[in-house]
Amino acid sequence: MEIERKFTVRELPADLTAYPHKHLEQAYLNTAPVIRIRREDDTCYLTYKGSGMLAREEYNLPLDAKSYAHLLPKCDGNVISKTRYLIPCGQHTIELDVFAPPFASLVIAEVEFETEKEAADFTPPAWFLQEVTYDPAYHNSTLSERIFADSLDSPL
Fold first, then answer.
1. For position 52, what pLDDT does the model report?
2. Verdict on whether the full-model pTM lies above 0.70
3. CB-CB contact of 69 with 59 (8 Å)
4. The one catalytic residue among 19, 28, 68, 85
């Protein structure tokens, strides 16, 4: 079970590059239910996500690089690339996703929790802006389906 809150951010932390980070590339074979492939640096996997906003089932299965490469052209829509920074926040870790084109102006902070109560009790840091946990426009699966009129189109 994945329990996660999502936020836009007011500003990036000044020392962002000091935090551990990884490059993610992901694409979607299906969006309802979500069936996604992801390459995270040199690790690849296939993910199934159930329905839900705050809490939902999630299963990851390992893929080798050859399988990932085979599945990638079969995916629909946008391939999403982003750099994920891992920022400590008390007992939690903020996963700060800085998106690459065509979503380059988008930055989303995600925080995962063990329980829904823990999620409800979480106080976001001051540099978070708006909570978007319940806004499907900020789901990566929705972004994968987004059609851009031209390169100046806003990501959302």
1. 93
2. yes
3. no
4. 28
